Amino acid sequence: MDNNRNVLIYKIWSPIYDWFFNSGAFLTARRSLFKDIPFKEGDSVLFVGVGTGADLEQIPYNKLSITAIDYSEAMLKQAKKKFSSDNILFLQMDAQHLKLASEEYDYVVASLILTVVPDGKKAFREIVRVTKKGGVILIFDKFAPENKALSPLKKFLRPLISLLGTDIGVTFKHLYQNEQDDVIIVEDQDLLFSGMYRKIRLLKK
């Protein structure tokens, strides 16, 4: 994956993104991501790769202090059209290099971003860094199976699908293994397509 190429890809995706990834089964999955999350008024929430703001529609955003970042100016533009709340700060920023203070957020949400950025490990490391101790990290993304190789079909499709701006060959273990001293997995749930898309909830130690 490459940031410059992603800018172009997501400029193309931005006007139609919600039609594909904020409707039907994907909308149901997004709702499941936030089910039973006990947001309290004033909680600080960071959305890493906020995209068109699809996840913001699923939370009480007017009661929270929200920072929403994305590398794609086109995607941020779509999000800003939907939300004018003073509680939401939209920033153009690289998920691999968050220009944010350490241990600043009660919740960090990363939807469909860790398999998009060039280096998912760096992005995950940054997500862990900016989460408060005792804070929660919510991840919704596609991950390859942990204990078996990709099927021949997926191996064939992987470079082709990467042209659309995502990688279907990343395992969560690959991202998590260097950060497990700082976070623990408290939930790992199949959300979509027989476990390809998962909800992972982590707690910062």
Share in helix: 25-40%
The portion of residues forming beta strands comes to 25-35%
Apparent shape: globular
| CA distance, first residue to last residue | 31 Å
Number of helices: 7
Helix/strand/pairing class, anyone?
Answer: alpha/beta
- Major sheet details: 7 strands, mixed
Summary?
The protein is α/β, with parallel strands linked by helices.
Labels describing this entry:
single chain; alpha/beta; seven-stranded mixed beta sheet; 7 strands
Layout of strands and helices, then pairs:
Blueprint lengths: L2 H11 L3 H5 L2 H10 L10 E5 L16 E6 L2 H10 L5 E5 L12 E7 L8 H11 E12 L9 H11 L9 H5 L6 E10 L4 E8 L1
Parallel strand pairs: 1-2, 1-4, 2-3, 4-5
Antiparallel strand pairs: 5-7, 6-7
Model description:
31% of the residues lie in helices and 26% in strands. The chain is of the alpha/beta class. Strands 3-2-1-4-5-7-6 form a 7-stranded mixed β-sheet. The protein starts with a helix and ends with a strand.
